[in-house]
Amino acid sequence: MGGRDTLRMAVTRQSVAGELADAVVSRDLVRARGLLAADVDFRAMTPRRIWEADGPAEVEAVLRAWLADPDEEIEQVEATAPVTVEDTQRVGWRVRGRGPDGPFVFEQQAYVREDEGRIAWLRIMCSGSRPV
């Protein structure tokens, strides 16, 4: 083409799992709730608790609790690399902040299965807060 390189771009739809990670990273938990199916199957495990929620509003409340601890200041939330395992996508985020004992970091990995463009099955595992 006249000595010029041509670029071919493939446009792909971002996965609902990726959209969830983006929503959490930007702390737009209302948007995260909007990605969930009305009958989402949700379970999560943090170091001190196993969480279950019925419906998108309860899942949003759980996410909000994790990112809004009154004793901690969240300074940064960043995405981790996504992975696909057959029909399940893994996405995650790393949270950095400062609490009464100083700076900390924790990571959460979400395993997602979608149905008709919504998250129908969601499992989240948390590393627990670690001092930096």
Provide an overview of this structure:
The chain has 132 residues and is of the alpha+beta class. The protein has a single domain (16-131), classed as Nuclear Transport Factor 2, Chain: A (Roll). It has helices at 16-25, 29-34, 56-67; strands at 36-46, 49-54, 73-85, 88-99, 102-115, 118-126, 130-131. Strands 1, 2, 3, 4, 5, 6 and 7 form a seven-stranded mixed sheet that branches. β1 (36-46) and β2 form a beta hairpin. The longest helix is centred in the middle third of the chain and has 12 residues, at 56-67. The model is unreliable at 1-13 (pLDDT under 50).
Layout of secondary structure:
Elements: H1 16-25, H2 29-34, E1 36-46, E2 49-54, H3 56-67, E3 73-85, E4 88-99, E5 102-115, E6 118-126, E7 130-131
Parallel strand pairs: 1-6
Antiparallel strand pairs: 1-2, 3-4, 4-5, 5-6, 5-7
Cα distance spanning the termini = 53 Å
Number of strands: 7
Low-pLDDT sequence parts: 1-13
In helices, the fraction of residues equals 10-25%
Mean pLDDT: 87
Please trace the helix and strand order, writing H or E for each element: HHEEHEEEEE
Proportion in β-strands: over 45%
Structural class: alpha+beta
What is the overall number of helices? Answer: 3
